[in-house]
Amino acid sequence: MRKLLVVVLAGGLAAGTLVAAGPPALAQAAKPTLGPYGYGKVKLGMSAKRARATGKVVLKMPAGEGSCSGWDLKAHPTGKNSVGLYISKKHGVAVIGAPEGVKTPEGIGIGSTMKQVKKAYPKLKTSPGGIPYVAVPGNGKAYYAFFPSRKGVLKQLILGLDKQDCVN
User: Fold this and answer.
1) Tens of pLDDT, residues 99-124
2) Domain segments of the chain: what residues?
3) Residue 29 has what pLDDT?
4) Angle subtended at Cα 137 by Cα 57 and Cα 82, rounded to the nearest 5 degrees
5) Which of 46-55, 57-66, 90-99, 114-123 is the least confident region?
6) Do residues 13 and 79 touch, judged by C-beta distance below 8 A?
7) Considering only CA atoms, which of 144, 98, 150 is closest in space to residue 117?
8) N or C: which end of the chain has fewer CB within 10 A?
9) CATH number of 2-161
């Protein structure tokens, strides 16, 4: 968890970098949740090949010499200089950003307040960099990280693997 927060902060990525645009209102009722193991058919730890085979992701940023590639969820494309998820060559799907309108099984999503986050996740901690995070209920190998506005409203929510190399 700490590695991701350092890169997000030190790497110059905006807190909204992983946030995706939401689908039409009619489709929102059928949306999968973010967590505990992924988003819909895209699962944490899944290889790039398997993720692509789901038909749910599109490559935006090849890994090149780096260890991770950047992707978007097809149903939730992000802007020009952002991605919706990262896939590690070694660990598979490593980080998934919550698309707007998508919630965790505990009901937390973009627009939730930190008061709601603390109620849903009483074991919430804060990283040395000031980012609230929590172990994902039901998946001891993953975490949620929350990126609130100054007013305490979530601008970004991510699901990530505890062990991953996308942010080193």
Assistant:
1) 999 999 999 999 999 999 999 999 99
2) 2-161
3) 52
4) 30
5) 57-66
6) no
7) 144
8) C
9) 2.60.460
